[in-house]
Amino acid sequence: MNVDEIKNGVVIDHIRPGGAMAIYHFLGLDKLDCTVAIIKNAQSRRMGKKDIIKVDTDIELELSVLGYIDHNLTVNVIKDGVKVRKYHPELPLEIVDIVKCKNPRCITSTEQELPHVFKLTDRENSVYRCIYCESKAKK
Amino acid sequence: MRHLIGIEDLSVAEIEQLIATAEDIMANPAKYSAVASGKKLATLFYEPSTRTRLSFEAAMMELGGGVLGFSEAQSSSAAKGESVADTAKVISCFADIMVMRHFKEGAPMVAAMNASVPVINAGDGGHNHPTQTLTDLLTIKCEKGRLSDLTVGLCGDLKFGRTVHSLITALSRYTGIRFVLISPKELTLPDYIKSEVLDRKGIEYVETASLEDSLPELDILYMTRVQRERFFNEQDYIRLKDSYILTLDKLDLAKPDLCIMHPLPRVNEIAVGVDKDSRACYFKQVLYGKYIRMALIKMLLEEADK
Asked: What is the pTM of this model?
């Protein structure tokens, strides 16, 4: 299967298989009117299988979102058909309003205007906890 | 602005300072009888409490300060739908320091983010209860003479028991602490406390369902109540509420200098007959609670004045 190369945009590579749709929604790519390709289960020497997202426009990615969802992925920035930058997003120390606290006992369950803030508490296992009730974030 | 939301907000040195102040208050109460003169403490209790609220009120009065507040959500603006954030801003106009108990976890933190006076968490759902932990630490220090090199048995509801979680976090900062976690399998300590506190700090602990087997090795036995209000399902509560009952007979197995603690209120997990045993420390613990709260109020008021 061939998917055209992009001229100016972003390729998010090495997404764990099955993870592309979550990233698509978290980044709000459904709101773009440019071409967005989601490639699932592509062959990968390193991972066996992987997902890839190609976005055919010059956009600023919300890195904290990407780092939270999958910090092992690779972001390639393409300009005039050439890869000009490649990086791996880091685990953000804090994420705000990316996931909601699911604990029914948390104050955020009744006070709707509060931001849903999670802090990184265990880097090794990528664990984030709600700053209010310390419940674990569920992706 | 300095607040106390979780016990980890205080360094070990600060806790030691608070304990030292509390011990000095016990020895020289007159010296502290006017340190909060002209100051007001607001007690915002959205959930019923006798001990904690009255302990704070008594503490403020003995420091020479005044007290105002409410003791249930229905008699506050919360009944009209006011947010915790707005309440904190409003109360900051009336009081110099506020104490909050709330049934929602994290509510005191929201208050602290919005208040312009110090906020003390007096219990937020099944989450934190740092002044109970300070009380427990002062009790252990006064009764055992140290906060290190102790085998500490925690018995009962270790899943929802916020006092247990905070005490484990606090004691894990001292050396030579070993925990014996005694609970039915449905009420074991949450995994995240084991992995993020005990395992991370290399603290030794064992999990068991038997109180009798554990008693001989304990220096401290911390009993807890299975709390009806933490269960969504009444049947689960009824099935688990009588899991452990400490009696005088069982105490024959324990060390002669065991220190029996309980955050109170108790239901039936400690038989009334145990109260007369010299090892029963839970009513002394209540008194220690007032003194450590006096020390805390004094510290926070002084920091707010800086």
From this structure: 0.88
